[in-house]
Each structure stands twice: as C-alpha cells, then as structure tokens.
Amino acid sequence: MLRCSTLDYLDEDYECPYCKEKLSCCSTPPFHIGDGLGWGSEYIFVCLNDKCSIFVNSWQQFDEKYGQPASCRYIQVPGEKKGTPMMVGSSQAFTGSIVDPKEIKNKDERYIKEKKATTQLDTCVEKKDIKPILCLILDESANLENRNRACDLIKEVCDFSCIDPIRNHKFLHTEIEQRANMAISAMLKEQFKKECPYCTEIIKAQAKICKHCGKEL
Ligand SMILES: [Zn+2]
Ligand SMILES: [Zn+2]
C-alpha cells in the first residue's frame, strides 16, 4: 500500500465510476477491513450520493445474501489506483466524518510553518533572523509557550521591522500582545530610540522635536 506522507492528495478531485458524482472527503474510520495494515491515509474519499446505483442496488443483494440491512458505498483510498465498494450498515455511515479538504490543508500548512518557526527560534539570535519570531507571535493558533519565547527574543534579534506587523496585529491573547509590545519598548530603549507618539516613526530617545512630523515632544 502506498503511504501518503503529504496531504497533496487533498487537492485532487475523485469521481465515482458508478454515478459520476464527486466523492466526499471523510476522515478514515478507526477500523479497517482487509489487509489489517490500516488505511495508509488519514482521509478517504467516499461517494455519499444516495442515488448512486451501487448504493441503491446493494441493499437488496445484502438482504438476499445475509438477511441483514446493509449496502455499499464506493470509496477511494488516496494513493491507491482504484477505488472499491465498501459495506455500510446504514445510509448515515461516513456522513458524520465529512471534512473540508481545503480547511485541512490550510491547517496542515499552518502547523508545518509553526513547527519550522519553532525550530528556527533556537538559531534566530545568532542569525539575526526576525522571521520565525514574527511568524509565531502573529500566529494565533501557535503554541503559547513558543509565542512567549518568541516575544522574549525580540530584543536580542533587534530588528525594527517587526514593530509595525506586531503593532498592527489583532491579538486574541492579550498577554502575548502585552509581552510583545513590552519587548518592542525594551528593544527601542536599549538602542536609545523611541516611537514618536504622533506619527509612530522611530526617533532618537533624546529628541525634542520629531524629525518626521516636526511635532514637539
Ligand atoms: Zn456513486
Ligand atoms: Zn513624529
């Protein structure tokens, strides 16, 4: 069985050969009938069209053969060449596990970015790289501990380009917002700078008149 290490297969459209309808993306059920190796994929594609011929016709076949209510849905496991009919006990099977492939891909991409940025935090000071710091501070879904750690590294990396994105970001966690803003203030102070309260440009800490907007301070 082909194992899918990336979620690229979620970009693809799969079609039911019986009814030509687009298959629905579902998270895989916890059980697996067959080789016992598992599904090899977190998600599978299922024809959930109740008018699909294989679904409509199989009720009678199962009833005649086994005397129990069951039917078949056409399923396609990503990475496998061909799909296969799979037994279902009711028309509701799989309908509770429908997922939106786009949403999953977005979440997955966000998670990969977060993981990468978290690793890069270890070397961002020596590399003077503000990017992983910003990535984590501005990612509301990222791990809070790592976001705090990113805030604490602002002063050490000392790159003023992080100021505007942070000041303009809508934070959901006020404690991260405060920590980031305090870190910016500490960074400016250490460099003998400040933000002009009128135009927010960065100016010398001892300036009496802002060189950008001309206002007296
Ligand atoms: Zn179908
Ligand atoms: Zn100013």
Ligands bound, unique: zinc ion
**Cα radius of gyration in angstroms:** 28 Å
Report helical residue fraction: 25-40%
Number of domains: 2
Average pLDDT, rounded to a whole number, is 91
Distance between the termini: 70 Å
Question: Main beta sheet: strand number and arrangement?
Answer: 4 strands, antiparallel
Query: Helix count?
Result: 7
Supply the helix-strand structural class.
alpha+beta
The 3D shape can be described as rod-shaped
As laid out across the biggest beta sheet, the strand order is 1-2-3-4
Count of distinct strands: 6
Q: Key terms for this structure?
A:
217 residues, alpha+beta, 2 domains, two-stranded antiparallel ribbon, 6 strands, binds zinc ion
What does this structure look like?
With 217 residues, the protein is α+β, with helices and mostly antiparallel strands. It folds into two domains: 8-97, no CATH class; 102-191, no CATH class. It is 37% helix and 12% strand. The strands form two sheets. A four-stranded antiparallel beta sheet has the order 1-2-3-4. Helix 4 runs antiparallel to helix 5. It starts with 23 loop residues before the first strand and ends in a 13-residue tail after the last strand. The model has no long low-confidence stretch (mean pLDDT 91). Bound molecules: zinc ion (ZN) (2 copies). Residues 16, 18-19, 21, 47, 49, 52, 74 line the site of one zinc ion. One zinc ion is lined by residues 196, 198-199, 201, 210, 212-213, 215.
